[in-house]
Amino acid sequence: MGRVSSACFISWMYLVYISSGFATTIEPASEFTTFNNIMENATEWMTDFSDIESKFSFRTSEEPEDDLCYIVPGQPETIKECNFNPDTKTFIVIHGWTVTGMFESWVPKLVTALYDREPTANVIVVDWLSRAQQHYPTSAAFTKLVGRDVAKFVNWLQAEIDYPWEKLHLLGYSLGAHVAGIAGLLTKHKVNRITGMDPAGPSFEYADAQSTLSPDDALFVDVLHTNTRGSPDRSIGIQRPVGHIDIYPNGGTFQPGCDLQNTVLMVATSGLRNMDQIVKCSHERSIHLFIDSLLNQEQESMAYHCSSKDSFNKGMCLSCRKNRCNKVGYGVNKIRTRRSSKMYMKTRDVMPYKVFHYQVKVHFFGKTKLSYTDQPMKISLYGIHGEKENIPYIMPALNTNTTMSFLLTTDTDIGELLMVKLLWEKDTLISWPWWNPDTFHIRKLRIKSGERQSKIVFSAKEDEFSYLSRGGEAAVFVKEKETQSSRKNQRLHKLKMHGSSFKQSTE
Ligand SMILES: *[C@@H]1O[C@H](CO)[C@@H](O)[C@H](O)[C@H]1NC(C)=O
Ligand SMILES: *[C@@H]1O[C@H](CO)[C@@H](O)[C@H](O)[C@H]1NC(C)=O
Prior knowledge:
alpha/beta, lipid metabolism, glycoprotein, disordered N terminus, hydrolase, lipoprotein lipase activity, binds 2-acetamido-2-deoxy-beta-D-glucopyranose, single chain, Rossmann fold, metal ion binding, 11 helices, 11-stranded mixed sheet, Lipoxygenase-1, 8-stranded antiparallel sheet
């Protein structure tokens, strides 16, 4: 008897332990077990449409804001009624957590942009607003059930009209990105693509791949991370990569134009209705970057593979060799690597977001040993198509006889560079005497363009050296007549003309 009751006690303890485990991973226990059953038997649950709570609104380009026609799983006539086009692509848009319980203003914008790019496509908006309006952890846990709803819908639609899997593209924002991932995991075949727009971080950062968006959920998974500021457990957007390609615009932490000053101004001009924009600005930027890629095809942003944000900010990662760079958003090249590729880019603060990236490398010679930190510089770039003057840059370190590499961007294409000016600004707080002797000698300046994939060497305009002094005149550099690339071409030319005879002579 005593043995039995102690066994009972142990199993009771075990239960407490398990359920406390559930509590921390925010899984309502019943939902979790249902989900595991789903995973075990992939056919039975799929044809049961009675428990689907999500709605599938077929939106049109004429009325992108309105739910005029729902496609209902199990009711094949609704496919025709909504004028679903079986011969074209289908985009399934999935929203995230909501405070208001209404569709946010980005939904019709994304629908419009998708139709602008693919006029004959089908755009379906998933409505899971009632489950998305709960206390956040509850809504986060609901992503599994909503993902299952979407998988059922997709499986049914596919089977009903023999719709090609490769025409399916799911797009999810915030919690919706994880919904898309779970849906992709549960469909009979892999869908072509899932785009995750700043997938939600809280309760997902440390979750397993089955509970979050992951590269296994579609043939190709691309992700934009735009609001990953703070420690991993506090970040609004998930920090770790969850796709084949994970792009971190502006480092992924926080987006330009989203600072308090800007958003307060926006609220002042457009009213308190947009108050929530202050909170969501960076998070939602992921969607607007994707919309930008749909609408501004001729101004496609580029992102570059890099080991870290810091290396990218030093301009070290602007290479396009071996798929190290890619187009951002809709036109991405679907490169699948085993490990997910972290990519970086800078953007403007408004659409079109594209900027042009440059790596500047400069060696500071000097007779005396000088050492500075955080020096204000102004750099002017002059190109064939225009110029960009006085780009501010704070040089983190400035030391004698060292080489600095840094990243500069321009928001317009100024074409191939011809001339560069470098100005070392005077410290505004301290007034330096006119005879300030702090001067560096610069012989050459090397600039690599990410967008053009060119490397150009600039040399001092007047002399062997240009002089950079604090608060002094700008140091001026002009393009060298013979650039590295033309020297390389000469070598190549030589090889082409004499290569075979060279080979013969060595044999
Ligand atoms: C899954 O469901 C099918 C159809 O109901 C059934 O035949 C099969 O035995 C089930 N498989 C498992 C592992 O439960
Ligand atoms: C820097 O290098 C140059 C030549 O490379 C040398 O003449 C000069 O003394 C060096 N300066 C210092 C501070 O070491």
